[in-house]
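Annex B. Sample input.
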Amino acid sequence: MANVSQYEQNADAVDHLALECGAHGYSRAQTAACIGISKQLLSTWIKDYPRFTEVMERADTLAQAWWEGRAMDGTAQSRIGGTVWHKSVAARFPHEYADRQEIGPMGGAGRASEVRWNIVDPKETET
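Annex B, continued. Sample output.
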């Protein structure tokens, strides 16, 4: 099998493992470690193999569902607390949970060129 990548040789097993990792709430870094590859190689496979792109999108969805399930069943509150849970999901799933407001013209590749943080002192809002 000349010129066959590590992913292509093991696609079924890699895909299954990635989905299992997602189902347990693993991040992409944890998934890469579980598969036995670097985060960079994981990113390369996602870019190069449409099948793996779809697998990782499904794994990300499963991971988010796992984290949200911990909030719904009370596990997050009782074990790590709401604040830590929120910081964890904000870091893992910034589009849904990050506390920020993006303003201004969009930069390259659809990224905001400016992020503005408003720090509010509750004492100043009391009148």
